[in-house]
Design brief:
123 residues; mainly alpha; 3 helices; 0% strand; elongated
Length: 123
């Protein structure tokens, strides 16, 4: 599904889209690139999935006083935990969805169609 964009925005983004499509079509992984990418991705995942939600829990307890005390303490405690879960699952889901979208777009650019598994033989 393609989102409708105004013509001026589409014209402005055309060189960027063409450059990114060319990059995706011709990119090949080497062992060095893959290892460096995985190290960077692991660092970003650690920050996004562990550090930021932990900071939120400390911030909500100490600064916002969402520690379960007061007349609405029960619901504020549940809201604090819900925000923490959103902060920890959001990057996790985003990594997987973004990887699938990029992979499917790359297959389309390279003209690959059909099943990724080879046909025939034992399954």
């Amino acid at each position: 599904m393609k989102l409708p964009l105004p013509k001026a925005v589409e014209k402005r983004l055309a060189p960027l889209v063409e450059r990114s499509d060319r990059f995706l079509k011709t990119w090949e992984w080497t062992w060095t690139k893959a290892v460096i990418f995985c190290l960077v991705l692991a660092f970003i995942a650690l920050i996004g999935i562990a550090v930021i939600p932990s900071f939120w829990l400390y911030f909500a307890d100490q600064k916002l006083k969402w520690d379960g005390s007061g007349p609405n303490g029960f619901w504020l405690l549940k809201l604090r935990d819900a925000v923490a879960m959103g902060l920890s699952t959001g990057p996790f889901v985003t990594f997987y969805v973004l990887a699938a979208v990029i992979q499917n777009h790359r297959r389309k650019l390279r003209g690959e169609t059909g099943d990724a598994r080879p046909a025939g033989g034992y399954r």
